[in-house]
User: Fold these one by one.
Assistant:
Number 1:
Amino acid sequence: MHKFLFRVSAFVLAIALVVPLLAEGEEGILDKVKNRGRLICGVNKELPGFGFLGQDGEWKGFDVDYGRAIAAAVLGDPNKVEFRPLKAAERFPALQTGEIDVLIRNTTWTLTRDTDLGADFCPPTFYDGQGFMLRKELGITSLKELAGATIGVTAGSTTELNLADTTRALGIEVESIVFEETETLYQSYDQGRCDAVTSDKSQLVSRRQSLKNPDDHIILDVTISKEPLGPVTVHGDNKWNDVVSWVVYATFSAEEHGITQANVSTFKPENTENPEIKRFLGLDESGGMGEKLGLSKDWARQVIAAVGNYGEIFDRNLTPLGLPRGVNKPWTQGGLLYAMPFR
Amino acid sequence: MKNNTPKGVSGKIPFWRDIRVLRVLFQVIFLLGVILLLVILYTNMLKGLRGLGLTLNLDFLQDEAGFDISEGIPYEPSDVYLKAFWVGILNTLKVSIIGIVCATLLGLLFGIARLSSNWLIRTIATAYVECFRNVPLLLQILFWYTAVVGQLPRVRESIALFGGVFINNRGIYLPSPEPTSGLKIWLGFLGAGFLLAVILYVVRWRKLQQLDRPGFRAKWALPAFLIVALCGWFLTPDRPFTLDLPVLQGFNFKGGMRFSPEFSALLIALSVYTGAFIAEIVRSGIQSVVKGQREAARAVGLSESQTLRLIVLPQSIPIIVPPLTSQYLNLTKNSSLAVAIGFPDLVSVGNTMMTQTGQSIPVFAMIMASYLVMSLTTSAAMNWYNRWINRVGF
């Protein structure tokens, strides 16, 4: 008997000594991704246009393309990425625990999330705002008329909080039903369980297409919040945050300079005069910008070759939904997209 | 035993050879190892959190929650997180308690029906048990929610039943009783009736003991109580309750009582699913009483109902109660699947709290502790019931 006890004790002690050793040896996410040879990216799987798993098993969407862009920059291959579908309420725990390398799931940048949730935000890739969708037949045009209505919303989103704020400010009472799954939310709305749904306008536009009769529904001409959506990395890994941020800037910058997926290969050291483009595409003599980020010299070229510039990503995914570019234009055209200088 | 210790060697065994010491020693080492492991895991977690710039504390519970909850006790988005969590706990309790009652009734009904000599009743009961026991609960919840409750007519086309009952896809609306000034007087009648009932119960019990005959102890007490309650209802100047009828106003019905579609779907799914398991437990409990017992009871002249009440049930209840307790615990824990259909239970509210505050670990601990308390209370109550029924008899 005591022999058995001795063995068990020894086993427990051994585990107790090994666990902290395993916890040591921390490496940055950039090295982790390179060693793994694969990027793990948390996305939405129920939002056509942003993140969507098609019937052919192919991931499609604006956020998905940014995941591919990062894979192209880090690993030189846009296909070396694994997409993890996440619900709104699951995304931050997944990021905190290191289950995903980067979160690109129409996530709004807020102060609380930046500080309390252990998240570091990269430049927004889509400036959105919260709106309301409801049935045309109700004949409602303003928010005040929604008093007493039942409104559907997704769990763990900023929209849930904005809805409560707005109705309090207007002094109206609404009943809000919180759904964990985006799919169930819109299904219930379609069945008439709720009078209206509220979410980012881009999501409303996207999901309206999949309702039974899209033409029966209107999106109110009111915006109750600012929703800057962009990639998120875990707090504390600045090097990795830099990489993701500059991949985003690369897509902005390429649009500013008119570099597209089609013409990026025509830029050669011989025919390129503009020094910023040379630095950007890694055509200059030195190691260039890539070395500073811990990436290859031609990382930006890889990004553009894989997914194109911002305008191309937008046109491919969001224009077919009928989403206008709005403020999501380069600053040179009066929009909010502004790439920091590549130097 | 004879002492065989050779000369020159001390009779004392060194402690590392003494099995009594060793036993304690190894247990202490084992315990230390476990504690060490826990401490390491805990510090490792704190280290990880520090790396993310997070700390563990419960201060956030006093912050304004800011999100709305669709049903439960009165609550405003301006209330604190602790209040929101409490709303979640009460919603879980509500669906669990009503669910346990419904599941027990269903289980009893179908469990006895499975032993019926009528082919149709027996087959229906078997079909019920086999269908609902073998389909995952989450699917059943989604089925009841989208395919049954969700398909009810819209608000403006509500099904109106007698007496102000309305059914639509926003829920089931019932008239609710509103207490009036007459309620106090009626409560006085109820109290008097209860007192009378207790006295009659004791008198009848004594009498039965005197006669040394089995019988229904509440045979006098129950009718007496009902007569007093009824007389009180009509003698009170104002009726103790008035009915508040639901009326369609704007988007929804106002007034009356309402069971939301989420609550209804969850309650139906939990009751039907757990009821199927309880039916099997009831059947096995009844069948565990050997046939000879029934035959003997009949031989001494007990009727069918007396056999069931005096011979079969007293022996099967101690067998039924422990697995029944497990089913009650399962039902309570399964109610956490509510999150799939938007019923604001403990887990649903907890999830929202986690994503809004980032305090995953404290909130998780709070959710786990809440379920633990609920489960331990349930099983303590059931164990007490089991002991009581064994002592007092059925």
Note: Residues 203 and 217 of chain B are 9 Å apart (CA to CA).
Number 2:
Amino acid sequence: MLRETWALYVREMKHWYRIKIQIFMALIQPIVWLGLFGQSFNFTNLFPSDLPGFDISQVLSGAPDYFSYLATGMLAVIALFTTMFAGMSLVWDRRFGFLTKLRVAPIPRGIVPVSRMNSAVTRAVVQALIVLLIALGFAYVPGLVGLTLSPDFGMLDLLGIIAVLTLLAIGFSCVFISVALAVENQETLFGLINLLNLPVMFASAALFPLSFMPSWLQGVAKLNPLTWAADACRTFAFHNTAPIFPVWQEVLFLGIFAAVMVGISVLVARKLLD
Amino acid sequence: MAAIIEVKDLVKVFDGKIRAVDGVSFEVEEGEIFGFLGPNGAGKSTTINMLVTLHRPTSGTAKVLGLDVVKEANKVRQGIGLVPQDLTVDDDLSGRENMVLQADLYNVDRKDASARIEELLRLVNLEDAADRLVKTYSGGMRKRLELAEGLIHRPRLLFLDEPTLGLDIQTRATMWEHIRRLKKEHNMTVFMTTHYLEEADSLCDRIGIIDRGRIMALDTPVTLKRSLGGDVLQMSIDDGKDFMPVIQQVPGVVEVKREGSEYRVKVLKGDTAMPTVLKAIIEAGGNVSSVSLQRPNMDQVFLEYTGRSLRDAEQTQSGDRGERFARARAAERRR
């Protein structure tokens, strides 16, 4: 079972690094966001810095400025966006017959979603780390704000961020894979993916602090895995003392989300690929 | 010899109304090349897809290698090879990478795998192109790679769904050569579908003629052709004299028709009857100016059993039933 999973994982990874433009395209969007949106919306300047008793970092989950806040949230958004390609590649495989090969092969059906999930997670984490480096690098470009991490940011914090992004990517890649397995028509699938992506992104703490939102939206956002992941990333990055949930809870929620979604995708594959 | 495929009353209904396969029963013996011949949309591919576990039969049973295709699907998958009609090779990998992936999916012993991959790539003449990406391959090369992939785990039974569809004549001939060699060297059983008459005629040990989801005839190509009543000698005899009585007396002659100096002689076996018929005419003083032997071909067989020529069948299929059927099948394939 491990051998087949590994073989399909290697195939997916070969597709990924052979099509360099795909990596470029996947990175260009977050970079543009960070470069334009993150810089222009850096509303830290709007608040008078000498206001007594006011600390902007309290609003921004410990981030010293909005750019840093956005950059850490963007790591989770990249994980979300990268995993949606896992669903799309499944649609192409169905269209070009490769899925037929897998259905005829004597392999457990669950291998199809699991191998694809593995490669989606690898891509998501690698791409998020590249963006993290770029955001840090912005600090050295004159005229741009860069990502400022906590002064005692260490290796464990980085591993924490990677773990959080991994769990998030596992969960969402399985969501998209399950949808792609269930939906036959590719136009419908792309529509569904868009329908899912934008609300998930905006109804979360990835781009804006929850305190800016009306209370009903805060309620929704607190149930959103993207919020848990973005908030946990900030706790690791800025050593935030007042997170939305304690970091262990957020990691636990993400773990449950990931496990449930893997289970669903395997069940869907068993039902629909046999 | 034991039956390697046993099919009983197999039915497949798409969308609750289109009976793609409508009560098909047959057996395939180990070691033979068995062909399904019929127009597009006759139910050939649907039958294959049920046998290789891609479609679930609506009713009826099918046993492959003695295993039920529904209840023991995974065991069936392990024992069979499939070269599907729509290609499944991965364009973004090289030929060899595709083979390695296939070996992994079928859990071919790692020690044997690389030697076997080389051997198979050589068999289908792809060893020089093995390290190129498949997207640079021609249609024939892809099909050959697909054949090599289907053989990676040395299956006892190979399914070929339209193995030469869309290939040029030379490539088709090489494909036939590969299939014959597989049967001869490995005693492999081959179940194939085709809508090329000459392909069924020259490759298959037995042929099932399938039309509108039903088997109309099933036998060896020779018997099917003979069932049409033998061969025809077409000849011209220049004299005005009537040679009908002379010809009718020759043993093996079934029927004689005359139109002026043209004679159509139906005989049981054309190759042995021709010399004796000619001899009788010459002895009676006749001067034969031309003679040709016409053997019934598969097209006539098809006409005989389905009531329409294969070409007509293709055309009407693409009309009503064929189109609805193709849509239903496309929908099924997307699953």
Note: The two ends of chain B are 37 Å apart (CA to CA).
